[in-house]
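Hi V.,

Quick status before I head out on leave. The structure for the redesign project is tokenized and pasted below; the design run finished overnight.
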């Protein structure tokens, strides 16, 4: 049973309900049991949030959290407390061959909520990160084994929230025409959304988008890659992207190490392509670089002119709705007590895109407290570094060309 907590006198900003006011929040048994300007503190452990911002626990819809099972993985239990992210959506770190280990060794023991998308490839991302040459998980299309996905569905179907495909040359080579329809079929079999990553062609984005239907997700929407950019050579939104928007495909940022350009973002936003979710695509090779954590990415959108309410919406209720999880990303009586408390800093800082281009962010968010299911998630030190560097010159050169996540 969780502790009875009272978060007192904070500015509660909950885009789902439209609340933006000074309120007390009472928590018991992992649920929110009181929302009022003043709640009697008797029987509660009081947390003074005067001058601070209280928001729903953040939902990062694109992460890689299979630490120990893949070289890309970061430990959500270490990064979550410092960032306010209570729900981590792992995007395809594990495939059918490795899902059991991910579930039992990482997802179940975590103090946070980790929601997995399974990789179309049987091997998932076990090969990604430190090989001296890139060997994509679908360079051999036979790794897209639908029989094995059916097997995993029989045991873990209630846990798996989506299917993930990296549709770029470093992941599937020239196999796009084969693996794209297999990805569509896999999502249909599992009865879950399909998330497709776009990057350097092949395949080109116009070949990818027809396989996404309403409720599916396109990620890395502001990447500058050749053949995978949402903009044409005139910096106009491609007709295929407009068609995808019209039929209800969801648009995810997926910042990553090489997948976000301020120039592309500015032009695409002016063309009407707004994100449905702001996410990190955080992994071991970018956590100490351009990504860091979700509040750092949120600051980049504040630098683009988004309001604080907008960036909170795009990291709480909006990604939760994409996941079909109306119980997450909002603050409501009887609901999950997932909350984050931030200090809002108005000292301008320089932030950079994946190409190294800088902008000034007028506002940043500094996490003071993270609660998941009513539990305060304390900082954790497991004695290992989360960040990694690429292990060889050859691997590094390949990724410097943009052939990376």
């Amino acid at each position: 049973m969780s502790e009875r907590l009272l978060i007192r006198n904070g500015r509660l900003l909950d885009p789902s309900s439209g609340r933006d006011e000074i309120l007390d929040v009472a928590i018991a048994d992992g649920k929110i049991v009181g929302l009022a300007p003043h709640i009697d503190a008797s029987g509660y452990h009081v947390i003074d949030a005067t001058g601070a911002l209280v928001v729903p626990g953040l939902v990062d819809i694109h992460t890689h959290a299979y630490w120990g099972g893949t070289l890309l993985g970061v430990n959500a239990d270490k990064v979550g407390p410092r960032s306010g992210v209570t729900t981590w959506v792992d995007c395809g770190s594990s495939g059918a061959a490795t899902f059991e280990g991910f579930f039992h060794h990482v997802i179940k023991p975590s103090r946070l909520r980790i929601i997995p998308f399974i990789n179309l490839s049987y091997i998932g991302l076990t090969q990604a990160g430190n090989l001296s040459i890139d060997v994509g998980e679908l360079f051999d299309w036979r790794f897209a084994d639908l029989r094995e996905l059916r097997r995993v569905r029989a045991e873990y179907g209630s846990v798996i929230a989506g299917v993930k495909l990296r549709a770029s040359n470093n992941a599937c080579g020239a196999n796009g025409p084969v693996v794209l329809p297999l990805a569509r079929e896999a999502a249909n079999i599992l009865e879950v959304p399909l998330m497709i990553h776009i990057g350097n062609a092949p395949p080109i984005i116009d070949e990818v988008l027809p396989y996404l239907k309403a409720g599916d997700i396109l990620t890395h929407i502001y990447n500058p890659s050749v053949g995978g950019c949402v903009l044409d050579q005139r910096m106009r939104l491609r007709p295929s992207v407009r068609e995808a928007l019209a039929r209800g495909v969801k648009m995810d940022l997926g910042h990553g190490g090489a997948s976000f350009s301020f120039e592309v973002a500015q032009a695409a936003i002016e063309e009407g392509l707004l994100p449905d979710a702001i996410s990190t695509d955080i992994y071991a090779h970018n956590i100490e670089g351009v990504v860091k954590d979700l509040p750092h990415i949120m600051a980049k959108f504040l630098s683009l002119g988004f309001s604080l309410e907008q960036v909170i919406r795009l990291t709480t209720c909006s990604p939760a709705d994409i996941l079909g999880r109306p119980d997450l990303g909002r603050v409501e009586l009887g609901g999950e007590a997932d909350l984050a408390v931030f200090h809002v800093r108005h000292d301008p800082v320089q932030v950079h895109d994946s190409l190294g281009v800088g902008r000034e962010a007028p506002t940043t968010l500094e996490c003071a407290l993270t609660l998941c299911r009513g539990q305060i998630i304390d900082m954790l030190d497991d004695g290992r570094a989360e960040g990694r560097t690429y292990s060889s010159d050859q691997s590094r050169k390949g990724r410097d060309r943009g052939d990376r996540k």
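Above is the designed sequence. The chain has two domains: 5-55+336-376, 57-322.

G. will cover questions while I'm gone.

Best,
W.
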